[in-house]
Specification:
globular; 5 helices; about 100 residues
């Protein structure tokens, strides 16, 4: 696994490099930074639009995903939207991009 200077490792670190922003270990870290005011909403939108997300659900059994958070999944985008950190147009654009990517696989 890849190890970052801040101790973060794994897919989150790889995904952050995929969009050229290694400040965040995962998408939820970027959302939290925007909530604190460390980055602008415009910057958050740019980051989330270019982020490479992990699958939201990895269900094997009926309750496998219940209560489990995936900080590098679309859950981060949803959280940013309901927290009023991104607007509806940005949310829909990200969702469309992911739907198109899923359709091409």
């Amino acid at each position: 696994m890849n190890q970052r200077a801040d101790g973060a490792s794994g897919r989150g670190a790889e995904a952050s490099r995929a969009h050229g922003d290694d400040r965040f270990a995962n998408a939820m870290d970027a959302v939290r930074a925007a909530a604190r005011g460390d980055i602008s909403r415009r910057e958050l939108a740019r980051i989330l639009q270019s982020w490479e997300y992990e699958p939201q659900h990895r269900t094997v059994g009926l309750l496998d995903d219940w209560g489990e958070r995936r900080p590098n999944s679309f859950d981060a985008v949803y959280h940013a939207f309901v927290s009023d950190l991104i607007d509806e147009d940005t949310y829909e654009a990200i969702a469309r991009r992911l739907d198109e990517a899923d359709g091409s696989r």
